[in-house]
Fold these 2 entries.
Entry 1:
Amino acid sequence: MSVDEVKGRLREGTETLESAATTIGSVRETVRSCHLAAIAVLQDSQHDHVTAALSLLREADTEGELVQRRVRNSSDSAGKYMKALG
Amino acid sequence: MSSSVGDVIGQLRQILRDLDGAAVEASSAEQAAAEGLKHYETATAGADNRHVDSMLSEAGEAAAKSGKVARLIAKAAAEIASYADHIAPGSIPTSSSSTGGMPTGESLAVPQYSKSPKAIKALGRIGQVRAADDGLQHIKKAVDWFHDAANPPGGSTVSRPPDFAFEPAHQPSGTAGEALLAALTLAALGAKGSEIASGIRRRARNRKLSKKDDTDG
């Protein structure tokens, strides 16, 4: 594989990963709005299912944020590697 | 805030629908991230570089965590469905998320609109359109029959009207009404036409008679 081919493939990888991060961004928005809606609908409920659901939604949002960060780190490293290739 | 159980269930259903969509989205993000990782692996096969190690491990983590997001959302949806079932047993039908797993291939392949009341209504409307269309074919036959009756072959000065444009998708009943009106108009024209023709014949006969009287007298 030539250097240009390697770079092209790396760019493809970065684009695909960034599309995943964008999708996760949209997922996080939905999760946060569902979390707020659930709090509003199930106000004051201390039922186990309710507290578990709200906690899981918060965790999903946090994990989503981590996905975005991982993608950013990965594409940064790919960019640095491409630079090193010349 | 709303207080009736029905309202709460309705709102929970909406939340579950949104979460189902989010879980599917997160799952597709997982696949995209895995694909991105594959591109990186192909591009860096055999490379020994710290940036390469970092990009591969971070991309792998991104894919894994996307899958985790999807699972967490599905679990949250299952908890909400369980709560809904607790306050109103049987109110939430078994859905992809409430079963605790990701949506099955079948649920992704089968269009969801087929289940919604709006879609059922729309499908019913399509059925009506089709039925109206069938009806229009009969009306068109009747129109043709009237037209043929009003215009016997060989001796007509009335040009054949253009074919009717049936557009049942817009207003099937209106189109049917228009076709019926056209049929009646043609029938009336036919009747009027023969009336006019007999009038002309009568006048011609009268003229002929008066001429004859003049010559006789």
Entry 2:
Amino acid sequence: MNPSGSVPRRRQGMDYGESEDVQKVHAAIQREKQEPRVGLEPLSLWLIGIYALAIFFGGAYLGRFSGSFSGDSLDPGTVPTKSHGAGPGGGGQQQTAELSPAERGKKVFMANCAVCHQASGLGSQSQGYPPLAGSEITNGGSRRAAMVVMKGLQGPITVKGQKFGSAVMQPWESLGDQKVADVLTYERQEWGNHGSPVTKEQIAALRKELASHPGSFVEADLHAAPDEDLPGGEQQGAAPPKPGEQAKPGAPPQGSPPPSTPGAQPPKP
Amino acid sequence: MKGFTPLVLGILATLAFSWLGLAYIPDLQIGHLDPQSDEEGTDIYPMPKSGMAERGRGVYVANGCFYCHSEQLRPDYAASDIERPRDAAPSAPPKWGDRRSAPRDYIFDRPALLGKMRMGPDLANIGKAAPAEEEAAPAQASPGPPAAPAASPPASNASPPPANAGAQQNAKPAARPSPQTPAAAPPAANASASPANVAAQQGAKPGAQPPAPPASAGSPPQTAAAPSPAASPSDSPAAYSAAWHHQHLYAPRSLNLDSDMPAYKFLYEKRRVGGEQSADAIKLRGERAPGEGWEIVPTYDAKCLVAYLMSLNQSHPLNEVKSAAAAPAGSPAAAKPAAK
Amino acid sequence: MNPTEIPLKSPGSVTDLSIGDVEQVERALIDASTRVPVLMFYASAVVWLLLGTLLAGFTSFKLHSPDLLSNVAVLTWGRIRPAHLNVMLYGWASMVGMGTAIWLMARLCRTTLRHPLVLVTGGAFWNLGVLLGVIGILAGDSTGYHWLEFPSYAAVVLFVAYSIIASWAVLMFRFRRGDPIYITQWYLLAAFLWFPWMYLAAQTMLFIVPVQGVLQAAVNWWYANNLLFLWFGSLALGTAYYMIPKVIGRPVYSYHLAAIGFWTYAFFASWTGMQRLVDGPFPAWMITASIAAMILCIIPVATVGLNHHMTMRGYFPLMRYSPTLRFTVFGAMSYTAFSLLGVVISLRSFARYLQFSEVSSAYSHLGLYAFFSMIMFGAMYYIVPRLVGREWRFASLIKIHFWASVYGIGLMTLMLIAGGMVQGLNMDNPTLPFTESTQSVLPYLRGRSLSGILMTVAHFVFAYHFLLMLLGLGRTASVPTFLNPVNPEPGEMVAH
């Protein structure tokens, strides 16, 4: 990269009328102004104001809608919780051990039961699915509820004063003891219900008990069974069923079941 | 500014920062996802695509389909992607999807064809929109349709081969299949259809399929409805079936006059009918028809492309994404357990 | 025209060399050394521009008339469109940008370019790469990634070519004379360093060690937005920072503004990739980060805009005369418009409607044409006379070029934004059939084709004019080609 000067260099190609003599500079260069330089004016206050606004809004947007910078939150406003399940690196399996029984049960419920009983636990009068929210069976002793889940239910049943007859519930014992126990635990403490939790040992015992009972239950079978919790499990947390409620199928509904949606709705940005 | 080195370092650092943030860290977060499976290790989703569908993706890419079609559904709070019904199905059209797309849906896709523009509808669930074979299949009893040669899909599809006879689809009296609103269609669909069709409609889960033609193995060869004297789409294949896709690729405006899609005639070949017309020949009418003794059949690339389209299905629930609440349909005892 | 009133330096005699004259001789030498490679880059770029424009015409017309020439595989819309895009990106824009950058680097580093045939080789390889790539796309080998459709065999050639070109440019920088590094040099050096990294990162993460699933799209758009901002945007801004003060003969307004503008641009613009994937299947923070980065990009936009504006203040009338100034200032103003549009379409509330509509196309074209290409046209109008020793022959052709381009891109932007809004609003309404949204945008697409005709005229006129210059048929004159006759007021400075 020689500096300019001494010896005129041979130019290659494309010599459009420029002579060999380097000293004769063509007019374009002659009339050129000097190469650009930079002044040193200070920043204007207005500009700093614009910076501040941009940083504020940009930063606020970033803070508000980042979903905690987690790889799991696809929704901008949601903070991910464990119960929303699959983090990176595996299906639900690896998370299962960290979830509570009710959270596991919720997954089972959503996958299997919500189709008919609805995510809100309200069921559908017209279709014949009884509600689980505030239901005597769900809130009562776990035996009856477990019988229904394990073996299914046929024929009419009265829940919360209403009669449901048209639908048939299939048996769910094929889910396995843990899942049945979890889903019972979930439905017994969701939507304002206050039933006791259920463990898989209890279900296993019940399964043995019911091994000889091939078909579904009917309402009469349920009433014939004692309205008690299954023996042998831990009783944690949930209040024992109030006395006298279960005895009357026509009892008024207890509490209003809050709707439960699987994921928080993020605010509109 | 003085100094070559600080300048260069600063330049490289800024790009490194953005690369770390938008490429590397996301790779740590969502770059190594496994498919989801339930505890028994069954019901794995998603699965890698079959050979034909994989090759079909190559055809899709080579012809730039992704410049007009997206394959991503946005959540319901952000857009109305999920609830949008498909245009071509005349009644009870399937929606674009059950849920938003999630990263796990694309782990086996290369390239992941999310798309950027929608001159045509989103295709994330186009495979799901295909009519399925009905289990209880009443025979076709439409009055007087001749047993026209079937345009049934080639058997090599990876996904459930859709039934094809589109009799009741086609019973709309000379109406274009789309852009009519779906409301216009059901009365027409019932008009000439067999009673069996109505039962099939009631039995079908809403949102799962269009009123699928209840053709099945037991029924006579798939038929198309009677060609009316005026050229009408009355003999179109069932919406979103493989045959429909073939016809749509070959001549989009034969199925939808408003379609802006280019024709992909080069994916099909015209050849002489040998003896009997091929099972996968495209049925065309009027001036599009190839003429006496000729037929239009798909090339292998076209079959692969359609196999790919039929494999596009993101409706499988994912734990991390909320699915639209499934509306119960009919007795739960009759339905298979919804645990998928 | 009254040449004597225009302040020109009369040629000094051979023996009478003042400092200024030495500088002029130096510049002449530098220009002479850069002549062959830069003209070769420019010539290639113009050829690709013409090809890309024809492909653009096909693309635009076929989009609203899909049966046009639809039976041929090579001409199907899905292949023509990426062919057009890649020819414009890597054929026209990259080559004109690199050619301009070489000349600017040589001038600013005050070094003559040694062994210019190295650059010529690099340019030839680059041309080969683009040619291979376009043929590959039309033959069906497109990779499926936006703005990266060239198949691998072409990408490799491009990368090799780039290494040759960039190393030469950076070497010039390394051996520069003079201590302070001028603003343009920051931008150009940055562009030359950023491009290989972003290209290599994209090729690696998409093809060599591919990332999984949706990350491909994230990397893809990280690359595409970086190409737009950190490669093309940097080249254009650097060029504008040279041309504006050079032509009007005043210093750039403020060093501090320039420094802030540069670093905030580098910092924020590289994060904006996910703006093209709003509400897609990604962790929300990625998308939010890009949107926030777009908002923060207001900082460099305001800064650079203010800097240019204050530099130009009082000198806007010179745009009447100088083609370079006209094109460059139009480009710089478009930069502001383009950035503001980018912020608006990224926000989730607007992206809801506009995400999958033609507005995205308007945004890209605003950036690549109204901003980048117009600045490059201005640069060519300045540089080419210095390389061929002649002035542009017909002021009228320059005017046709300018106005056809301005009306063309203006109409195109208007049509695509309006059409995109209609399309997006219809698309968001699930009670309407989807086809309704497509139908509603078709009239606007026809309007866009009309604008394409204007731009085609502009480009062919420019190419013809450029050809005249290459053939030595420019004007021999000591005054530049002004767009309007010069009748300066006493004391008024005239450009060039």
